Structure formats: C-alpha cells, structure tokens
Amino acid sequence: MLRVEGLTKRYKAGDHALKGVSFTVEPGQVVGLIGPSGAGKSTLIRCVNRLVDPTAGKVFLNDAEITSGAGDLRRVRRRIGMIFQEYALVERLTVMENVLSGRLGYVSFWRSFFRRFPAGDIEQAFRLLDRVGLTEHADKRADALSGGQRQRVGIARALEQNPELLLIDEPTASLDPKTSRQIMRLIVEICRESNLPAIINIHDVALAQMFVDRIIGLRAGEVVFDDVPSRLDNAALTAIYGEEDWAAMRKTAEDDAEDDAEATQARIERMAGLV
C-alpha cells in the first residue's frame, strides 16, 4: 500500500509544484493521474521514487516511510518499479538482458558487469516474458522491436524487481490506439494478479476511464478530483482542465473505440474464414 501525506514541493524560484497532496493507493489498485501540463503529475511521481525530495510531507510504502532523510536510495528505488514513456531500454542489448537489468539493485557490480545473474532471476525473467507475450523475442536486440513490444519489455523489467509499487509515466503516449489499449489492459491485469498498487501518469482521459480503478485529477499542484472513473463528468473535467466541449470529445473517443473494436472483430473473422 502507498500512502502520501501532505506532499509539498516548492522550487527555489518560489513556485509550488505540489501543495499538500494526500491520498492512499490500496494493494492491487490502479490509479490514473490526470491533469494539464504543469499540474504536478511528474513531480509527484518523482517525489515518490525519490528522484527529487519533497519540501514537506511524507510518503509511506507498506508502512515504511521512504521520504525521511537521505536513507538508502538504492534500497528504496528497488522497491518501486518504473515504466517509462520512452521505454528507457538499452537498445544494443537483448530483450532478456534488458529484463534482467531489473535485478541490478540486487546483484553485485561484477555479476551485473559480466551478466552472470542467478538462475532464479533468469527463470523469473523467462516467466515474465511469457506473461507479456515476448518469449520468442528473448534473444532479439531491443532496437529490433516495435513500440508496443518495447513497452512490454519495460513492463517485464519493472516486474523483475519484485516491486511493491509500480509508477508508470505515460505508457501509451508513443503508441497507436489499439496497442495503447492492449498495454493498459496488460498493466491492469498484472497489477490485479500480483496485488500491486500502481499510479499511471496519463494524458488520455478516455483511456484512463476505460481501464483504471480510480482517477486523481491535479490542477496547479492540488488534488481537485479523486473518485471512480464513472464520476468524472463534464463538471469534474472542467475543474481539472478548464472549459472545453467535453461532450464532443467524449463522442469522438467513443467512436474511435467502436471503430477499433469493429476492425478487430473483422480481422478475427477473416482469420477464421468467416468472410
């Protein structure tokens, strides 16, 4: 479980990126973090994984505070799996080697330098590659993969850490609509299977509503919405983003989803020889 209490971040210029943000994420719960650019979404994630230190407030992961003092950053960060927008893979390494890099916080320098990981780590990596549908690509270089495949490698690498929390930064920003849905579905399924709490920083509101359990909306560093996706109505969207024709935007998103579903069904029928 993740618990954030009164998290505040004020930069030297005096600007507040976060203003007393508080919330809890239960085991297995997937939270979508939405808001306009500059709302504090990325700062919040960076405070949780200790890439930046908050000005005030506390973060607890399974009742252990991870924001107190300098501490052991390596130990803190290996408890938190990160999935990145731009994948952050080592392009010249194989898929398997990239997944095994999730164990770097646990093995010695020389083991990692010579890529001599324990047998248990390798077995787990194979299981994870099977779970994300990439077993047959284990020996391919990362730069030979599609965007969706790279993101699946990133998911497997994060899970290889055996994390207690997943932080996910715009996982679908570089993907087409169909692949975006596949990736979101995979993330949500894995979190429920593993009872992992997760926060997804996401700009695609319609996609968030389709998959996450709960949505937190930030505006100017403050939480202005925290509820289930079905309660994210036009008034809530206006409070988060400002005035917009939300009804028209919802209709476009629904049409896109319907077109994608029809195209998928047509491909299935062609493959089955029905048409």
Compile the SSE list and pairings:
Blueprint: E1 2-10, E2 16-25, E3 30-34, H1 41-48, E4 56-61, E5 64-65, H2 73-77, E6 80-83, H3 95-100, H4 109-113, H5 119-131, H6 147-160, E7 165-169, H7 177-194, E8 198-201, H8 205-211, E9 214-219, E10 222-227, H9 234-241, H10 246-271
Parallel strand pairs: 3-8, 3-9, 6-7, 7-8
Antiparallel strand pairs: 1-2, 1-4, 4-5, 9-10
Helix pairs in contact: 5-6, 6-7
Task: Jot down its keywords.
275 residues, alpha/beta, Rossmann fold, 2 domains, 10 helices, P-loop_NTPase
Describe the structure.
The protein has 275 residues and is an alpha/beta fold. The protein has two domains: 2-244, 3-Layer(aba) Sandwich (Rossmann fold); 245-275. The chain is built from ten helices and ten strands. It has a six-stranded mixed β-sheet with strand order 6-7-8-3-9-10, with helices on both faces. It is globular, with a radius of gyration of 20 Å. The mean pLDDT is 87. GO terms for molecular function: ABC-type phosphonate transporter activity; ATP binding; ATP hydrolysis activity. InterPro entries: AAA+_ATPase (IPR003593), ABC_transporter-like_ATP-bd (IPR003439), ABC_transporter-like_CS (IPR017871), ABC_transpr_PhnC (IPR012693), MetN_ABC_transporter-like (IPR050086), P-loop_NTPase (IPR027417). This is Arginine transport ATP-binding protein ArtM.
Strand adjacency order, main sheet: 6-7-8-3-9-10
How many strand segments?
10
Structural class: alpha/beta
Query: Quaternary state, please?
Result: single chain
Number of domains: 2
Biggest β-sheet description: 6 strands, mixed
Portion in strands: 15-25%
| CATH-assigned homologous superfamily of the largest domain | P-loop containing nucleotide triphosphate hydrolases
CATH architecture of the largest domain: 3-Layer(aba) Sandwich
CATH T-level topology of the largest domain: Rossmann fold
Radius of gyration: 20 Å
- Unreliable runs: none
Fraction of residues in H or I helices: 40-55%
How many alpha or pi helices? Answer: 10
Mean pLDDT: 87
Shape: globular
Order of helices and strands: EEEHEEHEHHHHEHEHEEHH
CATH class of the largest domain: Alpha Beta
CA(first)-CA(last) distance:
49 Å
